[in-house]
Design a protein that fits this description.
alpha/beta; Rossmann fold; two-stranded antiparallel ribbon
Length: 180
């Protein structure tokens, strides 16, 4: 399967998707909408692409001006494809890739992020893991969760849903840390 980077420095260029059912690439329509909404926050941002798959979200962020993206993915075929995609654009210096389960990786992470992109498998969005990611948000940072469009907006203590968009079978929830 082929995907493409939509806009920015690498706009229009193709990337590979892993040949596995363990990942589900976000549709181009939803990805474009997401990045149009957060475009001002991406420029210069330190970004986490959790459940990275092909890396399409993080690569789009880099194409649109993010300073660094950390990619986390547990599937070995997806990691191999992701590394090929990073090499295709010569982005090793602006990215880090870790093969790990997001839940186990969180506790070992000592980086804080401006933007966290979360696109877990729709058959198991791992809400407890996703909401643990909030501890990696810088003040005023943004976390975006892709989830099945038919479900209710996932919520948790400590974060506030600041926006929610539905795109048929997919939806996006935008979170910021709750201010006291």
């Amino acid at each position: 399967m082929r995907l493409r980077v939509i806009a920015g420095l690498y706009g229009g260029r193709n990337i590979q998707a892993p040949d596995t059912v363990a990942t589900h690439p976000m549709s181009e329509r939803v990805r474009n909408a997401l990045f149009n909404i957060v475009s001002d926050e991406i420029k210069g941002a330190v970004v986490l692409d959790a459940f990275a798959g092909s890396g399409a979200l993080g690569l789009e962020a880099l194409s649109r001006g993010a300073s660094h993206v950390t990619f986390i993915e547990r599937d070995s075929r997806a990691i191999s494809t992701l590394k090929d995609n990073i090499a295709l654009f010569n982005l090793a210096g602006q990215s880090g890739t870790t093969q790990a389960d997001v839940a186990s990786w969180i506790d070992s992470c000592n980086t804080m992020f401006d933007v966290i992109l979360v696109d877990p498998p729709y058959d198991d969005i791992q809400l407890l893991t996703v909401m643990k990611l909030k501890k990696l948000l810088k003040p005023n940072a943004l976390m975006i969760l892709s989830y099945p469009g038919s479900g209710e907006v996932p919520t948790a203590n400590g974060v506030v849903v600041v926006d929610n968009r539905s795109y048929g079978t997919a939806a996006l929830a935008f979170y910021r840390l709750e201010t006291v």
